[in-house]
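ugh finaly. both done.
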Amino acid sequence: MTDQYGRFALQSIPPGDYRLFAWEDLEPYAYYDADFVRPYMTAGTLIRVSENSRQSVQIVSIPSR
């Protein structure tokens, strides 16, 4: 969830490569279903998290269907 300005924070993320997604509306836990996520893979934003890193990333939300 975002704040009133659309910002969010993630903490204690293990180092690695991640893909961020932001849906306008989503059924609870739908992101755990690989078949659901697959069509959206190109809409995700790739990031690399390293130890003690801080990043500011702007992502575009995926419209509701």
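ok and the 2nd:
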Amino acid sequence: MYEDFEIKTSYKYLKEVINSLKEPICILGGWAVFFQVNINFQKAQGRPYLGSRDIDLGFNIKLDISDDNLKKSSVIQSINILKKLKFKPLSFRLFKEVHTETEEEIQEGQIVPAHFIFPMYVDVIIDNISKNFKKIAGFNPIDEPLLRFVFENEKYCSLVKEFDKKLLLPSPELLLAMKINSLPNRSKAHKKVKDICDAFSLIWYSSINTEEIRITLLELTTEKRINICLKSITLEDLQKASAQINHSVDEIKRVLDLLK
């Protein structure tokens, strides 16, 4: 699915970013799934779980936050730190370019053939986008309304230590709800397959209580969204996911059907 270089580079910069930010640091997306399932996955399969190409960071912002408080907030401070680490804004995210052969950062003005360029993205994700966020930060980030549960309810978060830093992770159930909401809208096939792998692995390899999974999910998403998600998954998607996580198509389908 992803090249070893891409995952290795993403992990390298994940460590650099985490070591540069103030604790606790909320990790979302593929790396959050990795930290939730990797121990059990590695015990079962003798290899690490799938990594991620991107780094997703989560922040809590009040809709009515004043401009002065927004400027002092952890999200703006973190964006400023990322810029000092030479990540540049691009649309709704930040990025830097890395040479796939030398593994060094590509400098401003350096001419490199496109097939040697790996864009290392950091996505800043917040639960609420305040009206003046773009004016202060220079761009509008991704919004994820479910993220508020991480900061408002201990039931939906866990604190772990990685790279000698405290990380705030969404609970497996909350990550699963996020995957259910995002999966049908994936325009890139590899991201859709990764979502399927993540959803299966969160059910199979994390601490999720499978007997109560549907009750818990309906606190976070809707039956309609669950059904849309499951209907959007094709046999080809399942076959591609099967090749990545070493579980049969039938087994993946059976486990995902627990969501019905």
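summary for the 2nd one i guess: The chain has a mean pLDDT of 93.
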